Amino acid sequence: MASGRPIQLFRNMTAKIAAIPMILTALVIFVGGTAWTVVYSFTNSKLLPRANFVGLDQYERLWNTNRWIVSIENLLIYGICMLVLSFIIGFVLAALMDQKIRFENTFRTIILYPFALSFIVTGLIWQWLLNPDFGVQNVVRGLGWVSFEFDPLNNSSIVIYGVLIAGLWQGTGLVMVLMLAGLRGIDQEIWKAARVDGIPMWKTYLYIVVPMLRPVFITSIVIIASGIVRVYDLVVAQTAGGPGISSEVPAKYVYDYMFQGQNLGQGFAASTMMLLAVAIVIIPWAYLEFGSRNRG
Amino acid sequence: MKKLAMLCAATALTPVGAGAAELEVTHWWTSGGEAAAVAKFAEAFNENTEHTWVDGAIAGGGGTARPVMVSRIIGGDPMGAFQFNHGRQAEELIEAGLLRDMTHVAEEEGWKEIVNPPSLLEACTVDGRIYCAPVNIHSWQWLWLSNDAFAEAGLDVPANWDEFVEAGDALREAGIQPLALGGQPWQSSGLFNVLMATLAGPEVLEQIYGEKDAELAASDTMARVFQAAADAREMAQGSNVIDWNQATNMVITDAAGGQVMGDWAQGEFAVAGEVAGEDYTCIPGLGVHEVISTGGDAFYFPETGDAETEAAQDALARILLNPDTQVAFNLAKGSLPIRGDVDLTAANDCMKKGLEILEAGNTMPDVNMLNTEDTNNQLNDLFVEFFNDPSITPEDAQERFVSIVESAE
Amino acid sequence: MANPATISTAVAGADTLPLDGPQGPRPRPRLSRRNIFIYGTMLVVAVYYLLPLYVMIVTSLKGMPEIRLGNIFSPPMEITFEPWVKAWAEACTGLNCDGLSRGFWNSVKITVPSVFLSIAVASVNGYALSNWKFKGADIFFTILIFGAFIPYQVMLYPIVIILREIGLYGSLGGLVIVHVIFGMPIVTLLFRNYFASLPEELFKAARVDGAGFWQIYFQIMLPMSLPIFVVAMIIQVTGIWNDFLFGVVYTKPDTYPMTVQLNNIVNSVQGVKEYNVNMAATILTGLVPLVIYFVSGKLFVRGIAAGAVKG
């Protein structure tokens, strides 16, 4: 047994050496940086990080802040809608794109191009389109439907859906491309076999293709979800968190308190809560995924 | 624009002689008027010294620029000078020994004698040492009114806040938005602070923010201010804009009766070709209490340990307060100079009103000098919610206000 | 030696045809109900996606007085290219009035090495994680995924300190490292999961033939994963090209990327917003990723079977 250890260490050596950048990043930056953030969330650091510990004060204040609560509610609404809708739209578009259509390249670029534009601009352009005085509402009224009402950005109760429209426009192209890459990775033989067996196309997708795409789906979910958790610029540009505080999101809270309010401790406390929530989701998932030792 | 372009070209071609340093200056002045103003500094610096101004402009205000400045300083690779709102913001950097003591320049140039009001220099002073060079005065306490909007509603242009509130209903009936208010949080808290400084008086604001007097914050005096804020909220209902200058634009285009905004709004009226007194009216102190706050901008100088850079920093500090540069800069920026001994005959009517008030000594410290940015941020959150959600009663808002004052440092 | 051709034969059978097209079911006659449905849907979708672009282009061709009139959908009455010229060559960032052109080459210098390096590192990571699992690999991978969720701003100061300590603060190299680090979670995940979805037999056959780590990577995995390389490139080029925060915090004015100028044009807080210049600047900045999207389309069309045969 004892003699087996060094062999264990040197097995797979090339792979281990190749993974050194990853291991360093994971340990030094992500674990180290997160630990640093958590530690300083217990301090009253302001403009500069300083180790002046104040216990749970920052957390107490955080959870007594109305804006933080509103931010979390918004993130839940935005997050669930964004995840479900971009997933469905992305998959359907990718499946349509995979039907040997003409002008595939053109269509793909059209759906993907919003991804090339920054969130700041996405926010700005959708702020215009949704503006009641010269955007969509105005145009529809101009067409004769005078009582038409569509003014999400100035209505506290639905403003977050206005942000969602812009978010979907910007992000679904990438999901579509991801899924398309996954579909292109599927063996041609599968389609042939399914056709020979006379299985209808929708059934082939649902029962054969979708399970095969599971790894790609996981990738998509992580990409969409991390985008959701970090959503910031879009809200800043489109609504500035308004009307009032009704479209605030957690990442904006973090940034505003870190750099605008110069209260690093408060910002760190808020981001610690965000990361804690992420960890609560990821750790059980990793356990299920890797615990069973099955290859994805 | 042409001139600016030529200036850049000239800057790029200036040969760097022995002992001359390239001084990188970081600031967030990027709009037309601001850039023109900062160019006056660069011009004066390049012409009158052997050093060269390297411009590091970052748009987006302090929230964007601040992490850049702090990173550069703690990363050990600081810029030569940077702009900050003077006040309590830079205290920590000074305590950490990251900023250079500029007292020697201040004494040489006699800043103590020339800077007016003295509170500006006090804001730069920590433990008797001077760490920054104030460059201008911006005040918040202005009511901007559209003359045509009132004419259209068949009303006289109000002379003070109460008349304005009374006119609110008539304006609305005439299809005019009574009060324009942008959605950004700082505009809401700014409006409230102006109401507090004028309706309750500057001493009340100083007592509450400066001394953290929670009792006064909970008093009837303040309850009246909150009532006035509720009036303002009613008048601001329906002004669906975000940026402050969009709100100003509503006044310019006579879609709104008025706006409470700082003196920088003047630039917008000027660009639109409006004439003070004819097209619009500016009322300092809301016509109730003529006072201006003396906030503004200042430059700080990080420790670099490099003799050439230090010489350039000293030279820049002198140039910034030089009478000629002060006039050129402030005329372009629309702000007031920090020294009373300069000639500002070129100033427009509104600026002259401000200068008179300044000369009469009716000044008060800016909220930035009294509150930490953290407290300001909390106030922003409270008031942006209050001004946008009519279901919050003035009493509730006051209660939350008191608890912010209580917890403030 | 692993001969890719034998491998693909082993997987797909002897009758594999070199396919150059999409992998979906066989096309049907033209005006079938199915085709009408597909193209109809695609057209409606295309309109939804293109409408904002239309507004941007139209706005960028109008003068400011016309924009103030308010109808964002109306075509310009008088076409002007002034905003484009201004955005590219004249718009001011403080004192420097040479528009976006100032930062263009800086952006190229930042983007090319960062994209190349981050994709190289992450694809090897993904390959090691899916095919050469070592002890603890899953833990590092989980940490990486967790890292994808960390708001960037929170990490600014710790990274400043790390870069200072290794002497790379303020240099191009430092910025490239930062991009590699923050691109790593998503791109590693991308490759790991893509490699995991490839038929395992390919890898096993090569192992039986005695091929090693790098040999399999270069000769089998790379050629078969072109679509995912394109996706990784799309994500990284876009992310790094559009990055403002890291570019402005970890470099100096003379190496600022284009987005700093874009921010200064679009984000000026005081003064009149020149919407036409904003829109022109935005489209100009977005052009590089857009060209990449379009050009990479060719690589995208290749499927797995074709890749295995030709590689």
UniProtKB/TrEMBL annotation, chain B:
User: In the record, which residues are listed under signal peptide?
Assistant: 1-20
Q: Which domain of life is it from?
A: Bacteria
Q: Please state where this protein is localized.
A: Periplasm
* Keyword Signal part of the UniProt annotation: yes
Predominant cellular place of this UniProt entry's protein: periplasm
Give the keywords, sorted.
Signal, Transport
Q: Name one Pfam family in it.
A: SBP_bac_1
Q: List, alphabetically, the GO terms of the cellular component aspect.
A: periplasmic space
User: What function is annotated for this protein?
Assistant: Part of a binding-protein-dependent transport system for a sugar.
The UniProt similarity line reads: Belongs to the bacterial solute-binding protein 1 family.
PANTHER family recorded for this chain? ARABINOSE-BINDING PROTEIN-RELATED (PTHR43649), BINDING PROTEIN COMPONENT OF ABC SUGAR TRANSPORTER-RELATED (PTHR43649:SF28)
Q: What is the name of this protein?
A: Probable sugar-binding periplasmic protein
Automatic annotation (TrEMBL), chain C:
- The main location class comes to membrane
What parts of the sequence cross the membrane? 36-57, 110-128, 140-163, 169-195, 216-241, 277-295
Gene Ontology cellular component?
Answer: plasma membrane
Asked if the record carries the keyword Transmembrane helix, the reply is: yes
Q: Which PROSITE patterns match?
A: ABC_TM1
Query: Which GO terms are recorded in the biological process aspect for this UniProt protein?
Result: transmembrane transport
Localisation per UniProt entry: Cell membrane
State the family named in the UniProt similarity comment for this chain.
Answer: Belongs to the binding-protein-dependent transport system permease family.
Protein name, UniProt field: Carbohydrate ABC transporter permease
